[in-house]
Amino acid sequence: MKGKRVLVADWLDLYGGAEKVITILDEIINFDEVYTLTDIRKPEDKHLFFKGNPKIHSTKLQVFGKYFRYLLPLFPYFVKQIKIDPNSKFIFSSSHNIAKGISKTSADQIHYSYIQSRNLKYIWDDEQIDLYFGKFKFLILPFVKYLQKYDVQSAQKPDLLIANSLFQKQWLWDHYHRDSVVIYPPVDLSTYQLYTQKEDYYVAVGRFAKMKRFDILIDAFNQMPDKKLILIGDGELNDQFRKTAKSNIQFTGFLNSDKVYEYVKKAKAAIYIGIEDFGIAAVEAQACGTPVIAIGNGGTAETILHKKTGILVENQNVTSLIKSVEEFESHQFDYEYISKHSQKFSKKEFINSITNLLSV
Fold it and tell me: Which InterPro entries match (predicted)?
């Protein structure tokens, strides 16, 4: 690939599933520069994102620190302030919000966009608007139609959209009327390997954000005090969750991959109740041979085989989750079979797919 290679990311903060994809993309493409709305990574986490040392460009949104999300209606303005170096030949955007809307600065540039999740999903779905904005919903409602129009227009800018699941491919078609190529995200199976000595606790890993629905998980286990749940992660809802959780629920805070693996490999099951476009953490758990209890909608419906590698929850509510936990405990699972199933979502498969795509 000739010419300067740049990455455009929505923002850089916590190191989650989307950021793991960025790290692998950097290994494949070796980005020269990175453009983003804001970079608020903790100094001790910065080494996790990029193997090289690309130059990072951010916008004036940087001055708002962790409160930048409150300026959502102004994101289109700040995206327009991003000017890609005209000497750049290849643009790869990682978009779960608005990164795909970056404008080219020369006619011969190529732009591929990897869609990490349903972009701006909280302005496309009434339930998500309620969930994400809560009592401040009235502040965003006047901007919803404007943001929807902008989102559709910006989705036309990349030369190619890459979906991370069949579920997302359909969503992109329904909302943007654009076809896409499906490439499942990479799961580093060199870290997550089969372990058969399970212990008596459940585990969930992820960012404590409203979309992940850890609130349902906590409410359910508050009603099952004899069952231990370990929550691994951090985020804006951390304090709220710790206040409402009972003593059978343990919080570890953010952990590096090695420590996460130690918890996940020994768990009797991992649980994910949020609707994910793909859900890397659920596949990582299966790589360990750990069964997964997850919502039977979105990406987890593609990566989990019901009653073979886990249990698919029928509805996204406390009652349905409790019923699924009870169903799980009455079922026997083959840990080796679960681990083998995860191989189709390996880092190697992702690298081969992206490399083949770039060589076309």
Answer: Glyco_trans_1, Glycosyltransferase_grp1
